[in-house]
Write a structure and sequence with these properties.
Keywords: Ribonucleoprotein, Ribosomal protein. This protein has about 140 residues and is an alpha+beta fold. The chain is about 30% helix and about 25% strand. It is built from six helices and seven strands; from the N terminus they run ααβαββββββααα. A hairpin with a 4-residue loop joins β4 and β5.
């Protein structure tokens, strides 16, 4: 007797999953466009990855542009599932330079911007380390 799936509404059909991926709305693309945190941030916040945002500092660790210095995210282009990084550029045939699109999963976040504690309520409590009310509580009001 064949066993039943845990959730009958979840499909493993490749074409259906690709359709959902490429037709996903913006709020779901944000979640898909997460990048892993550096080892220091992972230890500090006890979180493996976070959605990428503009002004985050990242380092490319896969592909042609890997190993270059840390750069800021200039733009998050959800429609194409890519981010543009400050120093990751190439020269076109006519001499102008353009940013090269990199998928966020191929980068490590080294500094998750100024408002990192607002991204997850848990992070605000981790930062304070005390019983004082977190910044998150002030923002929610």
């Amino acid at each position: 007797m064949a066993t039943m799936k845990f959730n009958p509404f979840v499909t493993s059909d490749r074409s259906k999953n690709r359709k959902r991926h490429f037709n996903a709305p913006s709020h779901i693309r944000r979640k898909i466009m997460s990048s892993p945190l550096s080892k220091e941030l992972r230890q500090k916040y006890n979180v493996r990855s976070m959605p990428i945002r503009k002004d985050d500092e990242v380092q490319v660790v896969r592909g042609h542009y890997k190993g270059q210095q840390i750069g800021k995210v200039v733009q998050v282009y959800r429609k194409k599932y890519v981010i543009y990084i400050e120093r990751v550029q190439r020269e076109k045939a006519n001499g102008t330079t353009v940013h090269v699109g990199i998928h966020p999963s191929k980068c490590y976040q080294h500094n998750a911007g100024d408002m990192c504690c607002l991204l997850l309520p848990v992070l605000a409590d981790c930062d304070s380390g005390s019983t004082q009310p977190s910044l998150w509580a002030a923002v929610k009001q």
